[in-house]
Q: What sequence folds into this?
């Protein structure tokens, strides 16, 4: 498996410094948070996009994916959501990123069936555009659909190879799902896996990998046992927790922890 980290852990950091961190600490790739407050977002010009792609290529670091914020199950009209997804897909194509992350975002006024149908309809429509660009849309286990069982309800309705799953191990755990159950549900659709650690279900401030309660060893073990060889991406949520320890100091110990788990599960 290859290792990456998300720029959610280094909010607003210039890309030259992000790339320096990746190379200095031994990470193969970076997940880019695609948001206007970050260096990379859909508002970049063609020249700026070309510069980003060239910078990653020169550093020998891969862009794992773009972490977007489109909410595919959210109530309302389809077109604003589809427009947001298309803009992310265009950006991913221009940067050479294989994946775009979207959230479920179902509302409390909907029934689960309505939320599933809304998400599936939008993802199915966006899938054709994604296929033309060679980019894959990944539905993250999050918010209204936090478990693998939740996500598979939508993905089963879509049934398109350009739409897959992003397994956030915190949310499936918070949803009461065991890693073996999450993997069984998501494996036919799995794009990559987001790892992290927290103190408890009531305290989700980011911790160094291995310092909390999330079943990272079990997750890595089930992935290894089934021969999965994709990406593990550390999503350290510094952007939402200003008092969390700085990520740069944790990157090497985090990589060493994941490497140790991989070796033990081999």
A:
């Amino acid at each position: 498996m290859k290792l990456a980290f998300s720029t959610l852990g280094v909010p607003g950091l210039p890309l030259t410094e992000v790339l320096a961190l990746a190379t200095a600490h031994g990470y193969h790739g970076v997940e880019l948070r695609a948001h206007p407050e970050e260096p990379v977002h859909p508002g970049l010009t063609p020249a700026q996009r070309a510069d980003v792609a060239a910078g990653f290529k020169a550093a020998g670091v891969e862009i794992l994916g773009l972490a977007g914020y489109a909410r595919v199950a959210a109530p309302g009209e389809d077109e604003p959501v589809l427009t947001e997804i298309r803009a992310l897909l265009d950006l991913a194509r221009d940067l050479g990123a294989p994946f775009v992350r979207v959230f479920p975002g179902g509302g409390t006024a909907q029934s689960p069936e309505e939320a599933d149908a809304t998400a599936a309809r939008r993802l199915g429509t966006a899938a054709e555009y994604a296929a033309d660009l060679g980019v894959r849309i990944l539905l993250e286990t999050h918010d209204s659909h936090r478990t693998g069982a939740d996500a598979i309800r939508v993905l089963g309705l879509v049934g398109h190879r350009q739409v897959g799953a992003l397994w956030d191990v915190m949310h499936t755990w918070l949803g009461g799902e065991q890693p073996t159950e999450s993997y069984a549900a998501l494996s036919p659709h799995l794009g990559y896996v987001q790892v992290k650690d927290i103190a408890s279900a009531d305290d989700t401030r980011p911790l160094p990998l291995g310092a909390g309660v999330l079943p990272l060893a079990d997750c890595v073990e089930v992935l290894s046992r089934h021969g999965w060889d994709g990406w593990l991406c550390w999503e350290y949520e510094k952007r939402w927790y200003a008092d969390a320890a700085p990520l740069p100091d944790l990157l090497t110990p985090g990589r060493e922890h994941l490497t140790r788990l991989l070796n033990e599960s081999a």
